[in-house]
Each structure stands twice: as structure tokens, then as C-alpha cells.
Design brief:
The complex is a heterodimer. By secondary structure, chain A is an all-alpha fold. Chain A contains seven helices and no strands. By secondary structure, chain B is mainly α. The chains are: A mainly alpha, B mainly alpha.
């Protein structure tokens, strides 16, 4: 078939097509320049990783700065502000954190959909009325557990120990 | 809320109402319900994500609190104590939800995420935009893991101090801070579109 995959032909076609995009055979001076560039990049990467290690420490402390914590010493606060002035990454992160907090604080307190006090007091009264001899017992919707726990504490229910079963 | 535990006038008044209730004056308890139901509702609403469950939880919290009122330490904040009951009940309910996979929370959340994409292209009015932002925030808070969510809500929505949160959740203050840190980091990542918009506008 005509449209069957023909690797050799296709490869040549690709080479032809890309030929003018490929750089010319490099000169020795270019190779040296490129090596220097790579070394420079490596050095940059190294300093960057050292810097990010520093930044990591700073970012931990930024949370304290954000909270305005009383245990944050003034000199530490100064040092942090100093770092923020020279490190755009940390400064950006700090600004974003501040924005998150600002957004949260600007969230309004939700309105009550209804006044629950009547229902609550009615339920409490009803529970009180149902208690025997007017003795107040802990009110709970999961009464079963409370009853079990009370009985357990009074010694009415005992847990079986391993030695009992033998 | 201060960092040192000094009893405020509000707390003194609350303690008085608790004492009256324990002496048999149930009406005094009504005063506490009326005063704090909205606080409890807000914590429950942000934790559970919907009005109905939050309403049920308000009732449950105050009924439980009434039953356990004798255990309330009179030198502590009544509201913090209420929050402790509320957060425990919320976490119980969230765990029960997880145990019932038939209720598909994912669908709800997926639907809730949609406005994030529309927000920029719609260019609606300020108010609508604000509402949409609130909605996204609400959804993203609901998507946080429970322990991070509760700390975040208490700190930034209920405006509680780290120490009070530690007290309410029975965890060390350092843990509260870690949870807050993680929660904020997660939100920052998920709210990228909103944050960019805040920068633009």
C-alpha cells in the first residue's frame, strides 16, 4: 500500500525539512564559549539552591511575621524585612500570604437562617422532663453510649479480661 | 483576644449565667444560646459547608453543652468551651460523611469550583465579583483537610488567638501554628486565580 510506514524515506524527509533550522557545524571558539556558559549556569543553579535553602528558612519565619507574633524578636523581624527587600520571590510569596489572610478576614460572618434558641430550649426542657426524679443527666442524642458509659463507671458492666476466657 | 489569660467582663457575665443555669434557672441558659448561637453557627457552617447541617449542629452543640455544663471551668472562656464542643461534633460528622460514600461531596465541590474559571471572563460588577470570591473561598476552605480547616476558620474567620485555638482543640500551640501554615499554603495554591485578580483590581 502507498501510505504504509516507510521509516527510511520519512527520516530523510524530516532531515531535509529541518536542515535549515539546524545550526552550522560549530567552531572551536563556539564550543569553548558554550562550555563557559554551561559552567556559569551550573554556578547559578548552585547559588540558587543555596538561596532557596535560605528562603525556606525565611518562609517559615514569614508566617510568624504575618501573625505579628509577640515571640518574634525585633531583630528577626528586621532581618526578615531586609530579606524581603532583596528577594523578589520571597516578597511575592509574602504578599500572596497576606492577601490570603486579608481575603479570609474579609469574609462576612454568616447570618443565622433562623433563631435556634426556642428549639434548643424546648428540646432541653423536654429532656429535663423526661429525666426520672428530676435528676439532671447529660443530654445527648447518642444516649446509648452515655447509658453504657454510666453503667460501666458504676461497675454494672465489666469488660471481660483475657484470663476470664481461658 | 489577649495573649495572657485574663478574665474579661464578658466572661464574668457568662460565668454568672452558667452558675444561674446550674442552680436551676434554665432561662439563664437561653441568654447564652441567644448570645452565642451565631458564633457556633458560623464555625459549623464553614466546617460543614452547608446551612442545614450547620443548623442541626448548633442545636446539638447547645444541648450537649447544657448536659456538660457542670464540667465547664468558670475561669475559662465560655465561647472557647462551646467551640471545643462544636469542633468535636463537626469532626465527628465529617468522619461519618466519609464513611457514607453514597453522599457524593465531590460533585458538590466540583460544581463549586466552576466559578473560578468563569470569574475573569465574565467581568461582573464589584458586588457580584465579591460574592463569587466569597463562594470560591468558602468552597476551598471546605476542601481543606479537617484539622487544617478548623484551625484556619478559628484563627481568621472567628478571630481567635492561637492560644485559644490550642485550648479549644486540645493541641499544643506549636501544632496550631503548623496547621495554620499548611492551611494558608494550601489555600494560596488553590486561590491562584483569585489572588491574581486581587492584584489586577
Amino acid at each position: 500500500m502507498d501510505n504504509r510506514y516507510q521509516p527510511e524515506k520519512q527520516e530523510t524527509e524530516v532531515k531535509q525539512e529541518w536542515k535549515h533550522y539546524l545550526p552550522p557545524t560549530p567552531l572551536v571558539s563556539d564550543i569553548i564559549e558554550e562550555r563557559e556558559l554551561v559552567e556559569e549556569q551550573n554556578l547559578y543553579a548552585k547559588t540558587l539552591s543555596q538561596k532557596s535553602g535560605m528562603c525556606l528558612k525565611v518562609r517559615e519565619k514569614l508566617q510568624s511575621l504575618l501573625e505579628g507574633e509577640y515571640e518574634l524578636k525585633p531583630e528577626m523581624a528586621m532581618a526578615l524585612q531586609g530579606h524581603l527587600a532583596v528577594c523578589p520571590d520571597c516578597a511575592f510569596e509574602y504578599e500572596e500570604m497576606k492577601k490570603v489572610v486579608w481575603l479570609l478576614k474579609s469574609m462576612p460572618m454568616a447570618d443565622l437562617p433562623m433563631d435556634y434558641s426556642k428549639v434548643i430550649m424546648q428540646r432541653i426542657m423536654a429532656q429535663q422532663d423526661s429525666t426520672v426524679n428530676g435528676v439532671q443527666t447529660p443530654v445527648s442524642s447518642g444516649g446509648a453510649f452515655t447509658r453504657f458509659f454510666t453503667a460501666f463507671r458504676k461497675g454494672k458492666i465489666k469488660l471481660r479480661k483475657d484470663s476470664d476466657s481461658k | 483576644m489577649g495573649d495572657t489569660r485574663t478574665i474579661t467582663l464578658v466572661e464574668q457575665k457568662d460565668a454568672e449565667l452558667v452558675r444561674e443555669t446550674l442552680c436551676g434557672n434554665t432561662a439563664a441558659y437561653n441568654g447564652l444560646v441567644v448570645k452565642y448561637q451565631r458564633h457556633v453557627y458560623n464555625l459549623a457552617y464553614r466546617m460543614l459547608g452547608n446551612v442545614e447541617d450547620a443548623g442541626d449542629l448548633v442545636q446539638e452543640t447547645f444541648i450537649r453543652a447544657f448536659g456538660a455544663l457542670a464540667k465547664f471551668r468558670q475561669d475559662a472562656s465560655f465561647l472557647t468551651w462551646l467551640y471545643k464542643i462544636t469542633s468535636n461534633l463537626c469532626i465527628d460528622q465529617l468522619r461519618a460523611r466519609k464513611a457514607k460514600p453514597s453522599i457524593s461531596l465531590d460533585v458538590e465541590l466540583e460544581e463549586g469550583r466552576e466559578p473560578a474559571a468563569d470569574l475573569r471572563s465574565n467581568g461582573p460588577e464589584e458586588v457580584a465579583l465579591r460574592e463569587a470570591t466569597q463562594e470560591i473561598l468558602h468552597q476551598e476552605i471546605s476542601n481543606l483537610p479537617e484539622k487544617y480547616r478548623v484551625a484556619l476558620i478559628m484563627r481568621h474567620l472567628q478571630d481567635m488567638s492561637v492560644d485559644d485555638i490550642a485550648d479549644a482543640l486540645d493541641i499544643p500551640a506549636g501544632t496550631v501554628k503548623t496547621h495554620l501554615f499548611r492551611a494558608r499554603e494550601m489555600l494560596r495554591g488553590r486561590l491562584r486565580s483569585v489572588l491574581e485578580m486581587e492584584t489586577d483590581g
